Amino acid sequence: MARYTPPTQGKLGQIIDVIVLLIMAIGALYIPLWMGLAGSAVTSTAVENPTWESLGQNETMVAQWEKLGFADAASAAEMITARFDYSFSVGALLAMIVVIVGYYAILLRFSEKEYREVIAEKFEE
Amino acid sequence: MAQTDTTEHVGLARVLGPAHVWALGVGIVLVGEYMGWNFAVGKGGAYAALMACWFAGILYTCVAMIDSEVTSTVAAAGGQYTQAKHIVGPLMAFNVGLYLVFAYTMLEAANAITVGFLVDTVATMSGHEGGLDQRPFIILAIMFLAWLNYRGVLATLTFNLVITAIAFTAIIILFLSTSGILGVGEMNHAALMSGQAAMPYGWLGVLAAMHFGLWYYLGIEGTTQAAEEVRSPARALPFGTLAGVMTLAIAATLTWYVCAGLMPWEYLGQSGVPLFDAARLSGSTFLMVLLGIGTLFATLASANGCINDASRAWFAMGRDKYLPGWFGAVHPKYRTPYRAIIFLVPIALIFALGAPLDQVITFSILSGLLEYTFMPLNIILFRRKWPLDTIKRGYEHPFHPLPAMVLLGLCGLAFFAVFLGYGTQLVAMIVFYIVVSLWFHFWRYRFVNRGAQFTMPWPKPRGY
């Protein structure tokens, strides 16, 4: 097999490659944040005139809340009533599975193709 | 580029022993006991967080076993990246390299956020009104540690060894002081975990808690990044990594026991510095100061190790031209990958200064999770291509392929756990990796030498 000689990349090309990679990475991480799509699906229930009892807190819990600086039930109500929403559609779950499996399938397929070239050149020189 | 060509083949200095490997692994992760793990309580309640802690412990035991075998053979900078390059193929290696860089850089950002939060909390407790601007402390922490890494790996990891030991000792002292072993016990598990507080989301909450359960241990696999700088890789890497997992399992359980016995789950699940809060609840000024120092040291040790690991992965990819070769340079005096260290500083700052803590942690966990999913594939292919009688391993992990199968199953559970509540980030991140993979395969890979990137003195793999 003929040995592959890679082209030399100039400084400008190197800079462009780094910028492209950075844009993709920062975009992937920040776009969901900017679009308000990221974040935990947490909601708090508004409770009028909450008491420790109505928030389901027993004597020991109340003592600890007070030590933590929450003087009354109203100040801790938002924290106590915060709950995740774990409802999801089967369609969304299947989409996630397809995306993950598809990703690894692409990785393994392309990697195998590249790997065969590497082994061929390394061991047939 | 002339400078790159003359410096890129200079090796890193082999100066580290097993204790440094332990300190690198535990140092990165121990901060997970000081902050972040408690979001697992928020996702499923206290019992769910404990179950998640132990399931994640099984996951990381599999990771450590698999990783120790491969690393005791592939002892080169870049860790799992270099493993993937030799065992699976270049595209997988490129992805694994990015997993490492993003997992560690996001963890570094999370640590810096916690430093800022801690300083603000202490200032408020000391009577300062109106809150502090946390940004200067975040910037200072990242810049100082980057400078330390720039100056040399031995000093960096010796610094880590000391501050990690102090942070670990602080957890033990807090446990002994509040559990009743020394002095009066203050634990209230039964009362704080009764009624709806026991399992607020039922068994679905246990699954969901696996998401942040990984945070108890995330980063321990970073020990392999130092492979090229360890004096005896075949002995030090398995020993340091497995000792690290055991240390963390103990620390995680003690941390859960203390915090779940002192705080209502609703507070614990949203706390920024849970161990420090536990010390506050003990009423002891000594414990409060000790755990405040422990939190600071744990975050600094972790960020320090993260800079070390992320820069090694970036450096290794630059050296192979997977990334521009300019990054593959070693400092002529300090023998560190200085360009990679400097380049990653602003990226860490962007996220530390601009994103919420739970998001940054989730980004880090997702990259880690993708990496752990690669590991079972890696070890199965490694054993298939080079059976035990073809390459001498420094360590052979037992019961193959059981650990690989267990790891794959637990990774599947963890993906589902992230999907519950953070599905958008999961899909966005995987779409990013798909796009960047296509960019690598169809564009970037043309600059890579084919045969020359295979550097291990191994025989030809079976089946090729």
From TrEMBL, chain A:
For this protein, the parts annotated as crossing the membrane are 12-35, 86-106
Key words of the record? Membrane, Transmembrane, Transmembrane helix
This protein is called: Uncharacterized protein
Q: What is the source species?
A: Gemmobacter caeni
UniProtKB/TrEMBL annotation, chain B:
Localization: Membrane
**UniProt keyword terms in alphabetical order:** Membrane, Transmembrane, Transmembrane helix
Q: Can you tell which superkingdom this protein's organism belongs to?
A: Bacteria
Membrane topology, as annotated? Multi-pass membrane protein
Q: Where is the Amino acid permease/ SLC12A domain?
A: 28-434
Can you cite an annotated GO cellular component? membrane
> Has the keyword Transmembrane helix been applied to this entry?
yes
KW Nucleotidyltransferase (keyword) present = no
Q: What is this protein called?
A: Amino acid/polyamine/organocation transporter (APC superfamily)
This chain's source organism reads: Gemmobacter caeni
